Amino acid sequence: MSRTIKPYSHKESPLLVVISGPSGVGKDMTILRMKELGYPFHFVVTATTRPQRSGEENGVDYFFVSMSEFAEMIEMDELLEYAVVYGDYKGIPKAQVRKALASGKDVIMRIDVQGAETIRRLVPEAVFIFISAESESALVRRLRQRKTEPEDQLKMRIATARQEMKRLDLFDYVVINYQDQLDETCKKIAAIITAERCRVQQREINL
């Protein structure tokens, strides 16, 4: 007697992907390059009280808001998470993430390591990817080459980065962002997302 094999019904669920790592490893450049390459993800725009830098665009790089506007977002419980980073507030708007997930798109969220720790507690089924430089000396060199802050703030960023490198246990994956190999970094992140989409037990994101 022949047996009928029931086909496997595989329903893919949209992913919430957290990309994090120390200052200077190239998180922003990685996100920008993924957008340029046309990856079909929703890239979350973070709200911040940090002053807008030259070349940055409001609503694209960040939502630049005043301290009072940010406080109102906290009061209205409109932020998935928020933290003080080098004296400035940064937070993830909830509505933006929910809307993107509802559309079926994978959502990529770029946040600092402190924020990633918060999201790990709130949304344990998210995918956590740590971006790293090839070495500590390379990381320090990149931070110095940016020339975006005075020496005392730069020293604080370097000290913080060294501590953040010790938090790998928070993450599911680590991707080394080698100098001048940004496209390869993007490919690795995309490959992780593809593999996660193929899991038998899909991650269910509940916000």
How would you describe this structure to a colleague?
This protein is an alpha/beta fold and 207 residues long. The chain has one domain: P-loop containing nucleotide triphosphate hydrolases (Rossmann fold). Helix content is 38%, strand content 18%. It contains 7 helices and 9 strands; from the N terminus they run βαβββαββαβαβααβα. The protein has helices spanning 27-36, 67-75, 94-102, 113-122, 136-146, 151-164, 182-197, and strands spanning 16-20, 42-43, 47-48, 63-64, 79-85, 88-93, 107-110, 127-132, 173-176. The strands form 2 sheets. Strands 2-7-1-8-9 form a 5-stranded parallel β-sheet, sandwiched between helices. Strands 4-3-6-5 form a 4-stranded mixed β-sheet. It is globular and about 70 Å long. It starts with 15 loop residues before the first strand and ends in a 10-residue tail after the last helix. 29% of the residues are buried. The model has no long low-confidence stretch (mean pLDDT 88).
Keywords:
9 strands; 5-stranded parallel β-sheet; 207 residues; 4-stranded mixed β-sheet; 7 helices; alpha/beta; Rossmann fold; single chain
What CATH architecture do you see? 3-Layer(aba) Sandwich
The number of distinct structural domains comes to 1
Major pleated sheet? 5 strands, parallel
Number of contiguous helices: 7
The helix content, as a percent range, equals 25-40%
- Low-confidence segments, given as residue ranges, are none
Total beta-strand segments: 9
Q: What best-fitting shape do the alpha-carbon axes yield?
A: globular
Full CATH superfamily name? P-loop containing nucleotide triphosphate hydrolases
Radius of gyration: 18 Å
Measured by DSSP, the beta-strand proportion falls in 15-25%
CATH topology: Rossmann fold
Overall average residue pLDDT: 88
